[in-house]
Amino acid sequence: MTDSQITLWGAVSLRALRVHWALHELALPYRCEPIQSRSGETLTEEYGRLNPKRKIPYLTDGDFGLSESAAIVGYLFRAYGAGRGVYLPADDRAQATSDEWCYFVMTEMDAHSLYLIRRHGHLPEVYGHAPAAVASAEEYFLKQLAAVTPRIAEADPYLFGDRLGAADILLTTCLDWAANYGIEVSAPALAYLERTKARPAYQAAVASNAVAGQ
Ligand SMILES: N[C@@H](CCC(=O)N[C@@H](CS)C(=O)NCC(=O)O)C(=O)O
To answer: If residue 33 lies in a helix (H) or strand (E), which one and from where to where?
Structure first.
């Protein structure tokens, strides 16, 4: 427990892991309400009042509340990143390029590909069995990854140089998600993953995301 004003709702979830990671990366104290997906914990009246979307993660910072993992990670970096050794875009173009990565990862990799595979390949009892859609999503993911692999190969060691950015957190979780699904992730992407996942803050976040849910 901590007297921090930041509370993260969500554990044992890849999207929640992104926020645990950002919080550890920024060395911010926080409290975790370790609610889990499909456990009924997002369906309570109390949680519905907080987040009507009934999804995790959700973050409150004092009286400010935010859903959507990418928005939360971006908010934490912008609000607290200065002087904490992370990558912060220095001007509008740098911000736009970082946003470009974030939107790409969240739409092309997460929503259109991996989440589709999860819903229709791994949770057919909830979302329906759709093998053709799963096969097409895998193919689509590989096409998207191939398009950005040359740029990932240039990451040294992270997308924007020697400081980890919000986009690195999103990209890492999706590449790892794909690898865990047995999708053949390109060699440069695997090398990049090895570097980002070696960060102590990542390791601490994995522990928080797991332990918080026990
Ligand atoms: N786009 C959202 C997706 C959030 C999401 O789908 N979270 C899943 C867990 S990873 C969830 O809350 N599922 C709960 C449910 O469907 O009951 C984000 O990135 O935060």
So the answer is: strand 31-33
